[in-house]
Structure formats: structure tokens, C-alpha cells
Write a structure and sequence with these properties.
alpha+beta, FAS1 domain, 7-stranded mixed sheet, two-stranded antiparallel sheet, 11 strands, globular
């Protein structure tokens, strides 16, 4: 009798599971029949000027979203009129905060301030500079900072559809024959010039798994790109392992 009860309970349990599974299958099939897949593509149009995009995401309307704060501070130090970011037919290369400086353990460990450190002295025998990371824009000569930001604006629309996997040399707003101060390590780079002497940069698409980022001067991939402002194109730089834009080819 005990054995019969155990068997009856087992049969009842199996039957119950079967009923539940059948109901689940019917319910799932019903959902599949009614589900309509909708393909959505992110709209690259931001419907504001590049200037407004910069202002809104630096000190702007959403305090938690200040990803361009340190770029904005650099522009202010360099005394660059933000009206430059309202002029039409341009491509603007924005610096994410991490493109300027990455802080770890209270120290600058990556970004422009780390890759272009401040020269504290120069070895008289070897000519090798002794450096420290910058901690503020004011550590650099104002003209160097101004030239750097002029380099990050080009005349013309250079979005993904205008570029290929082959480098395209484009003209920036940086005047030709600019020399960086030896006060920063930038002045020791590019054969002691620091800046591209033609004021040009190379742009190309990189064929990899990161959705073909736009690469500057064979060194720096975009963090996000293809924002269509009402007056031009915006690409954002400052991604891990590709923090700094080098202003020479």
C-alpha cells in the first residue's frame, strides 16, 4: 500500500509538470505570434550647434553630465571664442574629460596632461627633459593651448561617409609653422616642433570590431563619433588606451 501511494504521487507529479509545461509552451507560442520586431536606428542628429552641445555637457543643464568640462576650461584659458563652434561647415573634435586627464589615486595617470607633461628641467649633458604631469591648463603656455584647440577644428565635413581606410590629410584651423614651447614636453616632440607644420591632420577609418572608428594621425580612435550638429560634425575622443590626440602626423 505504501508503494502504491508513492507511485500514485509520482504519477500525479509527472502529470502536473506536463500540464504546466504544455501551458507554458502555448503561452510562449502565443507571445511569439503577437510580437512584432521593430528595427530602430539611432538618430545622429543632435539638432543643436556644436557650441550648444559643448555648453550643455560641460557646465550645462544636467549637472551629472559634464563630460566636456575640462575641454571647456581649456578653451576658456586659451581665450578661444566659443563662437568658433557655431560657424558652419566644420568638423569639431571634442575632448572627453578622460582625453584631458585621468585621475587615479589622486594623481594624473593618463590623458593629454600625462602624455604632454611639464618640463621641470633638462639634463645639460643628454638634453633629456625631466618632467611631471600637468595638473591644470595654466601649467602650459596659453599659446600652446590655443594652438592645440585650433588643431581640433577643421574646415569641411569629415563624417564616416567622407572617409576610407586610407589616410586623408585635412586642413585644421592651426596656422602653419607653429612651434610649441619647450616648457611642456610637446615642445620636444615632432622634431622639436610639437605641432604639424602644415596645420594638417590625417583621418581614416579603422577596420576593426569597434564599428570602424575614426582614427587621427594613426594613433587615436574616437570614443564616439558622427554627431550631426546643425553647423557641422562632432567626433569625441578620450577612450581608454587612446586618450590623447597628438597634434602632428
Amino acid at each position: 500500500m505504501k508503494s502504491f501511494k508513492t507511485s500514485f504521487k509520482s504519477i500525479f507529479a509527472i502529470a502536473l509538470v506536463a500540464m504546466v509545461c504544455q501551458a507554458c509552451t502555448l503561452f510562449d507560442m502565443d507571445l511569439q505570434k503577437k510580437y512584432e520586431y521593430k528595427h530602430d536606428t539611432l538618430d545622429p542628429n543632435i539638432n543643436i550647434t556644436a557650441r550648444q552641445f559643448l555648453e550643455d555637457r560641460s557646465y550645462g543643464v544636467t549637472p551629472a553630465d559634464t563630460v566636456f568640462k575640462w575641454m571647456r576650461k581649456g578653451l576658456e584659458y586659451a581665450e578661444i571664442d566659443l563662437a568658433e563652434y557655431e560657424k558652419p561647415g566644420r568638423t569639431f573634435f571634442f575632448l572627453h574629460n578622460e582625453g584631458v586627464r585621468v585621475i587615479s589615486g589622486g594623481k594624473v595617470t593618463a590623458g593629454l596632461w600625462f602624455d604632454f607633461p611639464i618640463v621641470t628641467s633638462v639634463n645639460p649633458t643628454t638634453g633629456v627633459p625631466v618632467t611631471r604631469p600637468a595638473t591644470k591648463w595654466e601649467d602650459y603656455p596659453k599659446q600652446d593651448v590655443k594652438n592645440y584647440f585650433l588643431y581640433l577644428i577643421t574646415e569641411g565635413d569629415y563624417n564616416f561617409d567622407k572617409l576610407t581606410i586610407t589616410n586623408k590629410a585635412v586642413q585644421t584651423l592651426l596656422p602653419p609653422n607653429q612651434i610649441a614651447s619647450k616648457q611642456s614636453y610637446l615642445g620636444f616632440l615632432n622634431d622639436g616642433k610639437g605641432f604639424d607644420q602644415e596645420g594638417k591632420m590625417n583621418l581614416k577609418l579603422v577596420n576593426n570590431n569597434d564599428l570602424a572608428p575614426i582614427q587621427i594621425n594613426d594613433k587615436t580612435n574616437d570614443r564616439s563619433g558622427g554627431y550631426i550638429a546643425t553647423n557641422g560634425i562632432v567626433h569625441v575622443y578620450g577612450m581608454k588606451s587612446h586618450y590623447t590626440i597628438y597634434p602632428f602626423r
